[in-house]
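SAMPLE LOG
Freezer: B-3
Tube label: C17
Construct: single chain, 164 aa
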Amino acid sequence: MNCVGERGWSACVIVASTRAARGEYEDLTGPVLSAWLERCGFRGCGVSVVPDGPDVGRALADAISSGVDLAITTGGTGLTPSDVTPEQTRPHLTREIPGIAEALRLKGRESTPYAVVSRGLAGFAGRTLVVNLPGSRGGVKDGMAVLEPIVEHVLRQRDGGGHE
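STRUCTURE (predicted):
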């Protein structure tokens, strides 16, 4: 499967997990996303594991300033006090794409009623497409299913491409 053709777009994954950042358990979502992005033709699909909170915003700012085309976060989209990925993401967004976030919640709803409480965002931060996914393996799987058929179209649109 190659969802971006030969365009050579770049991507990164930011895992928001305080416990994984401390080494208390192994993150299982970042490697899955990175491997999927590479199969889709993205390059530089590194994974950063950071604690919940301001470190998410800093990692996102670093990704955006590096010029990455797609930055996917996983984790921190729920309702616990430490779930602040949307709050760390929103200041960077220059153009929200609410339909992507809505589609992620709808896809998740097929598996669990709890998907509707995910507060993840999606949009552009300058030229970087940013998508917040839940931290669960199921949420990441749903995210890949939603993004795979649209990511090339979204990035082509960013670059001024038309509908095909």
